[in-house]
Amino acid sequence: MSAVVMHTVGMNNVAMNNVAASGAQAAGRVRLRLTRRGRAVLTMLVALPIVIGAMVFALNGGGAAATGEQAHVTFHYVTVQSGDSLWSVASRIAPNADPRNVIADLVNLNGLSSAVVTPGQQLAIPTQYDGK
Predict the structure, then answer these.
(1) Which residue among 64, 97, 101, 129 is buried most deeply as judged by most CB within 10 Å?
(2) pTM of structure
(3) Is the pLDDT of residue 62 over 90?
(4) In terms of pLDDT, which residue wins out, 21 or 85?
(5) Which of 121, 118, 120, 89 is nearest to 105 (CA)?
(6) How does DSSP assign 30-50, residue by residue?
(7) Which residues does residue 4 pair with via DSSP β-bridges, in sequence order?
(8) Does CATH number 3.40.50.300 belong to domain 76-129?
């Protein structure tokens, strides 16, 4: 009877050693498994500093410092007469310059959408053509 008991005890020791050995192997191969909520939390933790940095850059990145100095530019104006076109106005204010260049400058300075002018319209004269 005692041999049977020893044999049973011996099998239990062997079985226990096998279980311990397989547990050690399993502990070496443990993989991290994240749930859907865990992945979302991890993504938020990684993305949060990037989003905060982008917001700080967007709010402060383009701030130009304004100075108290103002450029006081005075323009002289010409009034468009009946029958005038930009060509005739350009020829009148700058007789020695190419009228096409003067017209382009008049259109840019006055923010005209086309080359059509109306009688009584005030046009600012670019400083390089102001002979006064």
Answers:
(1) 129
(2) 0.46
(3) no
(4) 85
(5) 89
(6) ------HHHHHHHHHHHHHHH
(7) none
(8) no
